Every structure is written in C-alpha cells, then in structure tokens.
C-alpha cells in the first residue's frame, strides 16, 4: 500500500498495512504480547495495542509513532539501561 493511499483511507489498519506504512518511513514492525512496536536498528518504540489498529486511522498511527520517538528522546540515557 502506498503512503498516500494509506493516509487517505478512512478505515483502520491491519498488521500488514501498518508494517507497509512503517516501511515507507524506514521502520520495521514487531508485535509482542499484543502490542505493536516500530523498530529501527536496536531501537524500539511502542505504538499501540494490536486491537487498536482496526480503529486507528493511518495518520493517527504515524502520530503515535512520532510521539513515542519524541518521548524516548527526552528520557535520560541512564534511565534506559
């Protein structure tokens, strides 16, 4: 699915569509314990619950990713070890 098509659709996402959307931005997708995580190298960010994808617009999904990255960049490195 192209980025434009994913963002224009009003329907929620499934795992495959979420994975495709993240790949457009250079991230991978991992599901752990019913949670969706974006990955890049050794970094990993929680985005949402798998159950929330079906109700989540692609722009909201990307906003959650952006917020997760922003929050993790403000956490002191000593707290992440």
What does this entry look like structurally?
The chain has 81 residues and is an alpha+beta fold. The chain has one domain. Helices cover 46% and strands 22% of the residues. Strands 1-2-3 form a 3-stranded antiparallel beta sheet. Strand 1 and strand 2 (35-40) form a beta hairpin.
SSE inventory with pairings:
Layout: H1 3-8, H2 15-24, E1 28-32, E2 35-40, E3 43-49, H3 50-53, H4 58-74
Antiparallel strand pairs: 1-2, 2-3
Strand content: 15-25%
Estimated helix fraction: 40-55%
Number of helices, where a helix is a run of at least 4 consecutive DSSP H or I residues: 4
C-alpha Rg (nearest Å): 13 Å
H and E string:
HHEEEHH
Number of strands: 3
3D shape:
globular
Largest sheet: 3 strands, antiparallel
Q: Number of domains in the coordinates?
A: 1
Structural class: alpha+beta
State the distance separating the first and last CA atoms: 37 Å
Strand arrangement, largest sheet? 1-2-3
Q: Pick out the low-confidence regions.
A: 6-10
Mean pLDDT: 85
Task: Give a quick set of tags describing it.
81 residues; three-stranded antiparallel sheet; 4 helices; 46% helix
Provide a concise account of the structure shown.
With 81 residues, the chain is an alpha+beta fold. The chain has 4 helices and 3 strands.
